[in-house]
């Protein structure tokens, strides 16, 4: 089903275009070597990923601060592995992670081709809850920054997706009407339901183990987006 009358396409960044899991793993490998953290990286990531996911949910709901997220996800991961790390070490790793993360530039399969194709017809934009100091660096280093006319971050908007105010801010910046806009993202609540409630069309990018029954169009690969646009 192709969407008609669309002029603006809004994307989430992490896990939608930018391969967060792969780039994050590479950053941790480098940091652990630097800090001489003797933990198997695969063991660490197996523990860290669900903890990090939970902290981002808390952050999105304003239940923890940015600083709490950066420290807490590492502290809980090390504690789960029974690895003793002092606060100084944890804070150093947290700082290094923000510095190293954008140095890796892997994109999800098909991202460049899809963006190149869509940019010929539509105006492209980013709406992200990610930290403002790293999101633009991620896009620049991965070669996708020039595809986008606007970037709206949660820190700029003062609220996080799915709050309607961030979508209102993004539409104002892009001079877009919600009924002529579509949002693509990997988080059903933050990206899809949030955008839909504000009047945008929404397409859910799910992984094979996330497929769910809902009223929104679902894709599992970015190239499938071209069936709608």
Q: Assign the CATH superfamily of the largest domain.
A: HAD superfamily/HAD-like
> Could you spell the SSE succession in H and E letters?
EHHHHHEHEHHEHEE
Spatial sequence of strands, sheet with the most strands? 3-2-1-4-5-6
Separation, N- and C-terminal Cα atoms: 9 Å
Major sheet characteristics: 6 strands, parallel
Helix content: 40-55%
What is the number of domains?
2
Structural class: alpha/beta
Low-confidence segments: none
CATH architecture of the largest domain: 3-Layer(aba) Sandwich
SSE topology:
Layout: E1 8-11, H1 20-35, H2 41-60, H3 66-80, H4 87-100, H5 111-118, E2 123-128, H6 132-141, E3 148-153, H7 154-157, H8 164-174, E4 181-185, H9 188-197, E5 201-205, E6 218-219
Parallel strand pairs: 1-2, 1-4, 2-3, 4-5, 5-6
Helix pairs in contact: 1-4, 2-3, 3-4
Tell me what the structure shows:
InterPro entries: HAD-like_sf (IPR036412), HAD-SF_hydro_IA (IPR006439), HAD-SF_hydro_IA_YjjG/PynA (IPR011951), HAD_sf (IPR023214), PGP-like_dom2 (IPR023198), Pyrimidine_5'-ntase_YjjG (IPR052550). This is YjjG family noncanonical pyrimidine nucleotidase. It holds the Pfam family Hydrolase. GO terms for molecular function: 5'-nucleotidase activity. With 229 residues, the protein is of the alpha/beta class. It folds into two domains: 8-19 and 107-227, Rossmann fold (3-Layer(aba) Sandwich), CATH 3.40.50; 20-103, Putative phosphatase, domain 2 (DNA polymerase, domain 1, Orthogonal Bundle). It contains nine helices and six strands; from the N terminus they run βαααααβαβααβαββ. A six-stranded parallel sheet has the order 3-2-1-4-5-6, sandwiched between helices. α9 links the parallel β4 and β5. α1 (20-35) packs across α4 (87-100), α2 packs antiparallel against α3 (66-80) and α3 packs across α4 (87-100). The longest helix is centred in the N-terminal third of the chain and has 20 residues, at 41-60. The mean pLDDT is 94.
């Amino acid at each position: 089903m192709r969407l008609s009358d669309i002029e603006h396409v809004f994307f989430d960044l992490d896990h939608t275009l930018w391969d967060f899991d792969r780039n994050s793993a590479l950053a941790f490998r480098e940091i652990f070597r630097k800090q001489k953290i003797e933990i198997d990286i695969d063991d660490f990531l197996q523990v860290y990923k669900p903890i990090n996911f939970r902290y981002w949910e808390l952050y999105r709901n304003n239940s923890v601060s940015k600083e709490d997220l950066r420290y807490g996800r590492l502290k809980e991961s090390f504690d789960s592995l029974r690895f003793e790390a002092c606060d100084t070490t944890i804070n150093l790793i947290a700082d290094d992670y923000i510095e190293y993360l954008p140095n890796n530039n892997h994109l999800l399969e098909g991202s460049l081709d899809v963006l190149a194709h869509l940019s010929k017809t539509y105006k492209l934009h980013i709406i992200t809850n990610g930290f403002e100091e790293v999101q633009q660096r991620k896009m620049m280093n991965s070669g996708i920054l020039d595809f986008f006319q606007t970037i709206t971050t949660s820190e700029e908007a003062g609220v996080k997706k799915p709050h309607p105010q961030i979508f209102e801010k993004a539409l104002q910046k892009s001079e877009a009407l919600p009924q002529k806009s579509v949002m693509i993202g990997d988080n059903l609540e933050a990206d899809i339901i949030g955008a839909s409630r504000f009047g945008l069309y929404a397409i859910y990018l799910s992984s094979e183990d996330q497929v769910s029954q809902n009223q929104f169009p679902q894709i599992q690969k970015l190239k499938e987006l071209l069936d709608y646009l």
